[in-house]
Amino acid sequence: MILSFDLGTTKLLAMLCFPDPAGGGAGNGMDGLHPGGRSDPADGGGSRWTVLDAESADNDATLPGLPGHHEQEMRQIASKAISLAQLLLERHPKAARALRRIAISGQMHGLLPVVRAEEGCGLLPRPLGPLVTWRDTRTAASASAWRDRLDPGAPLRAGCRLSPGYGGLTLASMIANGQWPKNAVAQSAADYLAGRLTGVIAAEATHAASWGLLDIAASRWDEPICAALGVRGALPNLRPSAAPLAPLSPRAALLLGLPPGLGVMVHSPVGDNQASFLGATEACSAEAVLVNLGTGGQVSWRLAPDDPVMADGDIETRPLPGGGRLAVAASLCGGWSWQYLAGLFRDIVRECAGRELPLDNLYGALNRLAASGEAGAGGLAWSPLFLGARSDGSAKGALTGMDAANLTPGHLARAMADGIANELAGHFWRARRGGRDWPGPLVASGNGTRRNPALRDALARAFGRPCETVPEKEEAAIGAAMAVERA
C-alpha cells in the first residue's frame, strides 16, 4: 500500500493506492481493499493500479502580498496535507496496517527557506519564511541581467533558461538583496513535506532542475551556474527522484495515527509535471504527447536518447525519475485562464444585476457556451498571456478580430478555448521544426479538459489529431506512486 501526496498550487491531495497486476487485488495481499476504489491502467504490460480512496482540499495558504509576489504559508500546506492523510488512514485501518511506502508530488519551481541542519540530526525542517511559488514575478525586471552572468552553455546543461518564478533566480535575487534568511537552505514544497515526515533536510532532482540549478545529465548541482548566481551556500544535499529517503519518523507515524513498527519508507519527491506524465501516459505509446491543464498548462513528450536538449525559454528539457528526459513547453496561465473568464462573467453579473453566482455554476455555463460556439469563434481570437510568457515576462495578451457579430458570450468562451490550445500547440510545433509529425496519441489530463468538450476540440484542431482524455483524475499522485514502486 502506498500513501501518495500531491501538493498543488490550488489543491492538495492524499491518496491510498497500490499496484494490482491482476486488476482485482488477488494475490498481492490487498484482497478486500476495494470499497469505492477504482482500477486504472498503469503500464503497457497490463498491470493496473487500484486507488482505494483519496481526500482533497483547496490550497488556501496563499498570502496577501505586493504586486508580482505570490507566496504561500508552507506550514499550513503541510498540516492540511497531513490531515487529509489522517482521514484516509482512520477510514481504512486495514490499509493503514498494510502501508509500506509514501510518495510525494508537488508544485515545481518555487522555493522555501528552512533552517540549515546537519545530515542525520533528525531535526524537522523549520521554515524561515514563506514558500515563494512559480507564479511569483518579482524578478521579471532583473532576469536578463542575471542570465547575462551565466556561461553560454548553462541553459543546455540545466535544460532550461532562468525565468521569473524559477527558484534559482528567486534565490539569487533574495540573497543579493539581503532578503534570504541567514543559516537557511532552500527546499521545494514537496521536499519540505518529506522532511516533516522523516527529519531529512534535502532537495530532490526534478525540483532542483525546475530551479534551473541542476546539471541534468550528471544529476548534480551545476557548480558554474551556482557560483555565477552566488547561491551554492544555500543549497542542501541532493537526493535522487523517488528513491528511498528515510523511514517515517516515530513522531510522524504518531501524527498520522499509524501503529508503531510498520517500517514505512518515505521516498524522495517527484515534480508534478513528471509525475503527471507518468500517471497519464504509461498505458499509452512511448510517443504519447500529454497536455495537462491545471493552474498553468504544459505540453510534454519523451525525448529519444539522441534528441538534443531543448532550452530556449519556451521549451525545456526535464529529467524523468529513473532515467530519460521530457521536453516540456509551459504556459503560465493554462487552466487559470478559464477561471479568469468565469470570474469576469461573475463580476459582470454582480455589477450589472446585483447577483452573486457561484463560480462552479459559471464553469458549467462557460463550458456549454464554448461548446455552442463555432470553431474559430467567428474570427474572434484571444491570446491569453495574462501573466506573460516564459520567454518574455512582459508579453501581453490580446483580444482581436472583434465585430458586431462575434462579440458574444459564446464566441468569447470559444475564443478562450482556442487561445489556450493554440499557445501550447504553437510551442510544440515549433519544437518539432514546424511540420514533423509524431506517431503517438494526443492525451489530455486535468479537469479543464475532462469537463470541457470545446477545449478538447480546440486541442484536437491545434495538434491535428483526436484528443484522448485520461480517466484517472489524479495523475500526479498516481505517477508519484508508480515512480516509488519502481525505485
Structural class assignment = alpha/beta
Please identify, by name, the CATH architecture of the domain at 2-274 and 475-486. 2-Layer Sandwich
Q: What is the strand content?
A: 15-25%
End-to-end C-alpha gap: 15 Å
Largest sheet: 8 strands, mixed
Helix fraction bin: 25-40%
Give the CATH H-level superfamily of the domain at 2-274 and 475-486.
ATPase, nucleotide binding domain
The beta-strand count equals: 25
Q: How many separate helices?
A: 16
Question: What does the average pLDDT come to?
Answer: 89
What is the overall silhouette? globular
Low-pLDDT regions: 35-46
What is the CATH top level name of the domain at 2-274 and 475-486? Alpha Beta
Radius of gyration using CA atoms only = 22 Å
CATH topology tier name of the domain at 2-274 and 475-486: Nucleotidyltransferase, domain 5
Task: Please supply descriptive tags for the structure shown above.
487 residues, alpha/beta, Nucleotidyltransferase, domain 5, eight-stranded mixed sheet, six-stranded mixed sheet, 16 helices
